[in-house]
Amino acid sequence: MKKGRESTPHIGIFGRRNIGKSSLINALAGQEIAIVSEQPGTTTDPVRKSFEITGFGPVILIDTAGIDDTGNLGEKRVDKSLKTLDIIDLGILVLNNNLWGEYEDMLLTRFKNTDTPYIIVQTKSDLVKPTGIFIEKISKITGKEVISFSALTKENYEDLIRLIKTTIPEHALKIPTLLGDKIKPGDMVLLITPIDTEAPEGRLILPQVQAIRDVLDNDAVAVVLKEREIDAFLQRSSIKPALAITDSQIFVKADASVPNDIPLTSFSIALARLKGDFDNYLKGTPRISDLQDGDRVLLLESCTHQVSCDDIGRVKIPRWISNFTGKKLHFDVVAGLDATPRPVEDYALLIQCGGCMITRKQLHNRIRPAIEAGIPVTNYGMAIAWVQGIYRRAIAPFIGEGFTGEEYL
Question: Whose CA is closest to 318, among 255, 380, 270?
């Protein structure tokens, strides 16, 4: 894998208190990085450990509190542990002493709901090995094998590593390219980057940086300029860009300046295809036109930033959508991964940002409740393109040749 496209997989360890989770972590790491104690509840909050598993590679392993913790504080610890399912790429369900019950059933449900692949390990096999009856029982419940493992003797260590390798999703090991299937070595990519009140002092925003890096990783040429330089550059240069990418906020200016025979999209839409649920975005975006008076729209920003007087999520998008629809709408904005102020069923539309600051899994879990409830979802860039009348052109680079767009309109 090329440097710059690697993604360190996150592995979560789950199980009851005092069952051998920390010992398993130490065995995988080959060092004492987790506190081991006979006292139940030694691990109180999820703790991230970065290290390299011999025979596998670098990982971020998350040690969680026991899922059978009790009391008010215990319930909060369990809740924090379960929230890590939104960010991990693989779960390891730790068992002991041939015990399976309601806690393990609950974890299976959570794994399924968050689409989290998992493996099952019975620890302390030097003391109690899994019985044939128990293995058969677990197989019927989960359809999975049970790895018998001892942190003391390293029994079945290689089998455990093999199971981790074969179960963890490929996308956790390698980030898909942002533009690699749309450009080729030597192509010139025009990156239109306005410097406005929301641009951080002395630097570019992350989506712009990611696009530049991806262009370079694919041995193409990145030309970065402000929106007011587009016309002069294209007139003076004899080079025809293979692709132009603009900040969504200046779609109208970019659309007017970039000739129609040059594909044009936005940083946000490129991220939507990379990280988001692009198919559901394509289905959901046209529903903007169906909004009615009194409808609520939820905007999800996956980072926190200083709010400006012309903030994209709090000011510009609500204004553009309101003007486009001519309806009296209510807008809620949630930053980071905070809870929504209302049940998701209260909303007629959900608009997700590009998600440059979070993982693909975090983003998908963020919008999944809306999709399951039948609520249309879209993306900042796609929503802006729709209300500004350039949606067809903006998504065409990621649809394919001969695109008419009728099935998405």
Answer: 380
Taking every pair of Cα atoms in the chain, the longest distance, rounded to a whole number of angstroms, is: 77
Closest of 159, 119, 200, 151 to residue 26, by C-alpha: 151
Cβ neighbour number for residue 402 with a 10 Å cutoff: 5
Q: State the CATH class of domain 188-270.
A: alpha beta
pLDDT digits (tens, 9 = 90+) for 118-172: 999 999 888 999 999 999 999 999 999 999 998 888 889 889 988 998 898 766 6
The answer for 95, left when phi > 0, alpha when psi is -120 to 50, beta otherwise, is beta
Distances (CA, A) of 31 to 22, 122, 321: 11, 20, 55
- Let me know if domain 10-172 sits in CATH 3.90.226.10: no
CB neighbour burial string for 211-239, b if at least 16 within 10 angstroms, e if fewer? bbebbebbebbbbeeebeebeebbeeeee
Strands in 10-15's sheet, in edge-to-edge order, are: 47-53, 57-63, 10-15, 90-95, 118-122, 146-148
Lowest mean pLDDT among 11-15, 80-84, 304-308, 399-403: 304-308
The token duo for 269 is: 């839409």
Q: Which of 74, 68, 78, 82 is nearest to 12 (CA)?
A: 82
Q: pLDDT-derived band of residue 61, with 50, 70 and 90 as boundaries?
A: confident
Domain 10-172 and domain 188-270, same fold? Reply is yes
Output the CA torsion sign for 209, 214, 219, 224: negative
Give the pTM: 0.76
Q: Does the pLDDT value for residue 256 go beyond 60?
A: yes
The sign of the torsion formed by the CA atoms of 135, 35, 116, 338 equals: positive
* DSSP single-letter state for residue 339: P
> Which CATH code, of 3.40.50.11410, 3.50.50.60, 3.40.50.1460, 3.40.50.300, is assigned to 279-391?
3.40.50.11410
CB 95 within 8 A of CB 16: no
